Amino acid sequence: MVIGLEVHVELDTNTKIFCGCSTKFGASPNTQTCPVCMGLPGSLPVLNKKVVDYAVKAGIATNCSITPRGKQDRKNYFYPDLAKAYQVSQYDLPLCHDGYIEIEEENENYKIGITRIHIEEDAGKLIHTDGGSLIDYNRAGVPLIEIVSEPDIRSAAQAKAYLQKLRSIIMYAGISDCKMNEGSFRCDVNLSVREKGSEILGTRTEMKNLNSFSFIVKAIESEFKRQIEVIESGDEVIQETRRWDQELGKSFSMRTKEDAHDYRYFPDPDLAPIVITKEKLKEIKDSIEVLPDQRKKTYMDSYGLTAYEADKLVSEKFIADFYEEAVKEGSAKLVANLMLSEVFRLLGKEEEAEKIPFAPSKLGVLAKRIEEDVISQSMAKKIVELLWKSDKDVDEIIEKEDMRQITDVALLEGIISKLIAENEDIVSSYKAGKEKAFQALVGSVMRQTKGKASPSLTAKILSELITK
């Protein structure tokens, strides 16, 4: 398969691209509109300066060249959610071009080229009902950047890795919240197939507006299979736009795919050229904080994390910020373990990262208590669950729930001696070379002490008493 992706990102501005209407999500239909975004005759657009700054920021963060003097163009087509019957976009002079991002997939590194990043206005939203279709123009004029990749992607897994990395970079750059469930980060998939070893590209299809990583993976795998079946049956793949139906797990043809000349692009006569000076470029570049790859390197070099651990922790800026605050209170490695196992488990979806209900310092203190042998790892799991439900301090929970580790050697020796006497068959199995028998005895001690015995001390005492 050969894949190129077109990603639409809603920019996090307070107002629309050409007017002062609010961009706030979730307002009642058609309450955030004016003559400009409704395309009424005589209305004139004024470009939002922040849109240009944000687009250039995205370009710098993805290693693009920046166009010093660009323009905006009208893309002409008729659809009910496009009030003006044209969309203001960019054609031959996009703001950013010829960039790339690097991804890792199955321990291999790949460089995915970025053809262009351009600004454009969003269209309205169609709501289909049994009685017809309704139009909400609140979204019309919301500022977008479109990020177009080169056809460098060769699998659904690579596509997912690229999108996750791109989403992470955009969020670190601070230009969009990238909430996929609200349409702030959505993707069109261009896919074709060719015989292995061939350099000739096949006929591509486009699947529009996919807004979930899992949907994208399923849609790619399904379309790949469909195109192969079409070719092997002796038919030809048609260049068309298709709609992915998640419930049915298949795509359906919507319309034949247009080429650029079908849109009759021409420069928008109501909008001035976009000029990016060297001074402006430096100002934007200096405003970009540390990006995911730089943070990943720091976590590996300074904190001793593995590439996998670091990758997971830098995937979202909020997660990375949370982790760094927690590390101020406790061991970097232990905090990472707690984040990756317990916090991520309770968090669920990536988009809900900001829903961690307790301060990062509490996770750091929890890691410190593990390091001090006050509590065990298994107890830490329960404490994270309790922190999720209440706003208590870690030490308060430890005392109230009686979670302190048993480190009294005499007490543990008594428990373990009795256990050895009662389980001679298991002890004999261990002495005969069965390591699992030893772990079974450790597990018995943990059950008897309700998980409060120090695992390392338990193993040490058990080993000494068995070999006496």
From TrEMBL:
It catalyses: L-aspartyl-tRNA(Asn) + L-glutamine + ATP + H2O = L-asparaginyl-tRNA(Asn) + L-glutamate + ADP + phosphate + 2 H(+); L-glutamyl-tRNA(Gln) + L-glutamine + ATP + H2O = L-glutaminyl-tRNA(Gln) + L-glutamate + ADP + phosphate + H(+). Allows the formation of correctly charged Asn-tRNA(Asn) or Gln-tRNA(Gln) through the transamidation of misacylated Asp-tRNA(Asn) or Glu-tRNA(Gln) in organisms which lack either or both of asparaginyl-tRNA or glutaminyl-tRNA synthetases. The reaction takes place in the presence of glutamine and ATP through an activated phospho-Asp-tRNA(Asn) or phospho-Glu-tRNA(Gln). The keyword Transferase applies. This is Aspartyl/glutamyl-tRNA(Asn/Gln) amidotransferase subunit B. The lineage of its organism: Bacteria, Bacillati, Bacillota, Clostridia, Peptostreptococcales. It comes from Acetoanaerobium sticklandii (strain ATCC 12662 / DSM 519 / JCM 1433 / CCUG 9281 / NCIMB 10654 / HF). Transmembrane segments: none annotated. It holds the Pfam family GatB_N. PROSITE patterns: GATB. Its EC number is 6.3.5.-. HAMAP family: GatB. GO terms for molecular function: asparaginyl-tRNA synthase (glutamine-hydrolyzing) activity; ATP binding; glutaminyl-tRNA synthase (glutamine-hydrolyzing) activity; transferase activity. Keywords: ATP-binding, Ligase, Nucleotide-binding, Protein biosynthesis, Transferase. The gene is gatB. GO terms for biological process: glutaminyl-tRNAGln biosynthesis via transamidation; translation. PANTHER family: GLUTAMYL-TRNA GLN AMIDOTRANSFERASE SUBUNIT B MITOCHONDRIAL AND PROKARYOTIC PET112-RELATED, GLUTAMYL-TRNA(GLN) AMIDOTRANSFERASE SUBUNIT B, MITOCHONDRIAL. Belongs to the GatB/GatE family. GatB subfamily. Residues 321-466 form the Asn/Gln amidotransferase domain. Heterotrimer of A, B and C subunits.
